[in-house]
Design brief:
With 414 residues, the protein is α/β, with parallel strands linked by helices. It has 15 helices and 19 strands. Helix 4 crosses helix 5, helix 4 packs across helix 11 and helix 14 runs antiparallel to helix 15.
Length: 414
């Protein structure tokens, strides 16, 4: 079986190639990938090559397929799995497959990754329950399950105490509490805003910060204050670009004497980390969501507040399988509108340049249609007719957002 895939051979050495997959074994599953979503975590692996924790040492001789946010359909099932999986079933993948080496699809394996037309799932993926059924309306939203699961994982990782004398941890963000999303003007931050407004555990006050006004304006367009108010949430957007210390401005948004119960930090910056700790209230929880590249990353922290205000810090930027299941349900039921974070679509031929340019591209998720070849287009390009009137109409009717009807039109048209 032939496949076409983007493979990593070394630091910034990406190649789009066509090659043969091996014969399917009884404990494996053959699948077709329809969409993948580009992730900044992939660029970190590309930049570091074999020095990356999840990338094997021998990629120069045994290259790996990139992409870990993918969705598709099962083609063939080995005999060992025929009672659990069936040809034609749609799937999404949990990349954290429980490998002792931290290996994961999209980072570590020669025959499974999202930037490919066809892949082979080896036994460990199914044994760990990481190949999950998906019944959403579109493939591209299936590719957004993994990033959403990272956010649901962060919300689920935070914890609080019933009272100051209890040792019991009540998991999850505080319902009706005060929440701040710091540096939350990228795709993950947008998903966090959406989940905070529409999830089961909603804060009473929600503050979103960023240092680029255009990105904050985009966030407010996607998640207006009026919509938040209808959800019972008081929402504020704050530009911290010219604030050496943003903590007083954020404290001023809360009733006197209150601090923030839940803070998610999306930027690995020492000063922001220190200030994030400063705005925590009694029993407040800081989730250090950003993944620093520096192994010696550190920041000052007030341990007086650790002792007397019982503040706590957790680190989480990846979801487990249960978080994935929750994210699947949120997307299938339309609770979270993950399509809002899509900014561009492209063919498989655009993956190499787009991955290398991720840091400089406009914010938003870039969705790859692996069986197609066409330039990287923004949604604005599509509305202006870059790929024809029919597709332009589908995007226009959805108020400029990528959507299931547009995807169906694209696949039919191409």
């Amino acid at each position: 079986m032939r496949t076409r895939a983007v493979r990593l051979y070394g630091k910034q050495d990406l190649r789009l190639e066509e090659f043969d997959l091996p014969e399917l074994r009884s404990d494996e599953i053959l699948a077709e990938v329809y969409t993948d979503s580009l992730c900044m975590s992939t660029l970190k692996a590309v930049d570091r090559g074999a020095d990356h924790k999840k990338v094997p040492d021998d990629i120069a001789e045994h290259p790996i397929i990139l992409g870990h946010e993918f969705c598709g359909k099962i083609i063939d099932v080995g005999d060992d799995w025929k009672t659990q999986y069936h040809a034609g079933d749609r799937f999404v993948i949990q990349p954290n497959i429980g490998d002792a080496r931290s290996y994961a699809p999209g980072y570590s394996f020669p025959y499974v990754g999202g930037d490919a037309t066809k892949v082979i799932f080896h036994a460990q993926v199914m044994q760990n329950g990481s190949l999950l059924p998906y019944a959403g309306k579109s493939y591209f939203e299936g590719s957004l399950v993994e990033p959403l699961s990272c956010v649901t994982g962060a919300f689920n990782t935070n914890y609080h105490l019933p009272d100051q004398y209890s040792h019991k941890h009540v998991m999850g963000i505080k319902r009706g509490g005060n929440m701040a999303l710091l540096g939350a003007t990228g795709p993950m931050g947008f998903l966090a805003i959406d989940l905070a407004l529409h999830g089961k555990q909603r804060p009473r006050h929600l503050v979103v910060t960023g240092h680029t006004q255009s990105k904050l304006d985009m966030a407010e367009r996607l998640y207006p204050k009026e919509e938040a108010k209808a959800c019972g949430v008081e929402l504020h957007y704050i530009n911290t670009d010219r604030m050496e210390d943003f903590s007083p401005a954020l404290q001023a948004l809360l009733p006197a004497g209150e601090g923030y119960d839940d803070v998610l930090l999306f930027v690995a910056d020492p000063s922001m980390t220190t200030q994030a700790v400063q705005i925590l209230g009694m029993d407040g929880c800081l989730n250090f969501f950003a993944g620093p590249l520096d192994k010696n990353f550190s920041a000052e922290m007030n341990f007086f507040d650790v002792h007397y205000n019982m503040i706590h810090i957790v680190g989480n930027s990846g979801g487990n399988t249960e978080d994935m299941r929750e994210a699947i349900a949120l997307i299938e039921q339309g609770t979270v509108q993950a399509n809002k974070i899509v900014s561009h679509i492209m063919g498989l031929d655009q993956v190499v340049p787009s991955t290398l340019q991720l840091r400089t591209l406009p914010p938003g998720k870039k969705v790859v249609y692996t069986h197609l070849e066409f330039p990287r287009y923004s949604l604005a390009d599509l509305m202006e007719g870059a790929m024809g009137k029919d597709l332009a109409k589908c995007v226009q009717e959805a108020q400029g957002f990528w959507n299931a009807k547009a995807e169906a039109c694209l696949l039919k048209q191409m």
